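Title: Comparing notes on inverse folding

I've been comparing how different people in this forum approach sequence design from structure. To keep things fair, I'm posting one structure and asking everyone to reply with a full sequence. Here's the target:
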């Protein structure tokens, strides 16, 4: 085990009608709030918008709204939110939605406290040091942003997609009502499952040694995802499976599983370029890329991939040919994603040619080589894109 620092100050509440507690929780931090959301038909037709605004009003919290969040959230909307917060002297930001909404709210929260442009944090020109208090009402479990210290944004002017991380980005509270997830369509459910599974993979495929505790924790979380994913594929309204996956998304990405070990994150970095250039859905990029990344790097640590195959997918270990076992585990990973209906090749997510591969590979490595299990340069990244074509 490696040395580490870990903090998770977020208050989590998982229960029916948890969203109605937003006024009470916001009031602990501010008399007013910026309510960030998608502004889509569901928000209004489902009654969620009315529930949130009433809960805030009943608690005596003045509400200002920032609708219009899109998947792969844009820095342009964040800048609007920052100006609104400064103008109205808003003291708290409440995100109601999924990862894109929460990442937008986090960016607003750090931008208000910063004299420069908020994109400086994402271009590595500055490091977040303080933020407005952030609250979340989770409606789409996937990214784990409701418990993490990170935020991802897209800059449409530069074509970049980038992240920033700091503990001040961890939400003060997260409210989880599983009933809000019962109507999530299968496609979005699948991409959420892929995302949280991938968050565990990024931590599991580590070069750190003797990490027995977090190995077993990662494996247990992945096994639980397999069980609950199968349950939801049979019945999308399975309340218990929805509740378990709401909490799983948090556990997979709040940093606990990474304590005492290094991490990889190459696949997320490679996938971010597909989102930036093709507006590809985040979970879809991961289902395509992760098996190909694994096939590209597995020889770096065959015992780790053998352990993955055996403990997560119950593959018998071939003592005479451990490479065969490792490859079978990778095949099982691809098979799992495909069984959910997730894409497995690039043309399924709208990438029909290789014309942008070189640029995307260079962008992925613009801050240097990536990866923790095996270090990858731009040539490696381009090779993985090409592997993912078929």
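Reply #1:
Here's my take.
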């Amino acid at each position: 085990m490696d040395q580490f620092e870990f903090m998770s100050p977020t208050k989590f509440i998982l229960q029916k009608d948890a969203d109605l507690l937003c006024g009470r929780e916001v009031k602990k931090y501010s008399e007013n709030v910026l309510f960030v959301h998608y502004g889509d038909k569901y928000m209004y037709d489902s009654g969620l918008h009315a529930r949130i605004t009433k809960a805030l009003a009943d608690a005596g919290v003045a509400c200002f709204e920032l609708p219009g969040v899109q998947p792969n959230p844009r820095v342009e909307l964040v800048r609007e939110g920052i100006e609104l917060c400064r103008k109205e002297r808003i003291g708290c930001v409440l995100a109601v939605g999924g990862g894109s909404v929460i990442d937008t709210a986090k960016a607003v929260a750090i931008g208000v406290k910063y004299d420069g442009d908020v994109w400086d944090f994402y271009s590595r020109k500055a490091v977040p040091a303080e933020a407005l208090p952030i609250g979340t009402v989770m409606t789409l479990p996937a990214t784990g942003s409701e418990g993490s210290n990170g935020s991802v944004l897209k800059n449409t002017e530069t074509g970049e997609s980038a992240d920033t991380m700091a503990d001040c980005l961890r939400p003060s509270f997260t409210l989880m009502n599983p009933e809000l997830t019962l109507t999530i369509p299968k496609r979005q459910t699948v991409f959420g499952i892929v995302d949280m599974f991938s968050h565990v993979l990024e931590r599991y495929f580590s070069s750190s040694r003797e990490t027995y505790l977090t190995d077993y924790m990662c494996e247990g979380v992945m096994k639980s995802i397999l069980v609950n994913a199968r349950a939801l594929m049979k019945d999308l309204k399975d309340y218990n499976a929805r509740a378990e996956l709401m909490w799983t998304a948090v556990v997979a990405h709040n940093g606990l599983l990474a304590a005492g070990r290094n991490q990889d994150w190459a696949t997320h970095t490679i996938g971010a370029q597909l989102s930036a250039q093709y507006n590809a859905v985040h979970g879809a990029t991961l289902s395509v890329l992760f098996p190909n990344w694994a096939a590209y790097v597995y020889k770096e640590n065959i015992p780790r991939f053998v352990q993955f195959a055996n403990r997560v997918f119950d593959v018998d270990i071939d003592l005479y040919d451990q490479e065969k076992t490792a490859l079978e585990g990778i095949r099982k990973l691809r098979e799992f994603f495909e069984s959910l209906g997730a894409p497995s090749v690039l043309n399924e997510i709208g990438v029909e040619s290789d014309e942008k591969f070189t640029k995307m590979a260079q962008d992925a490595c613009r801050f240097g080589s990536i990866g923790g299990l095996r270090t990858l340069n731009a040539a490696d990244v381009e090779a993985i894109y090409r592997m993912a074509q078929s």
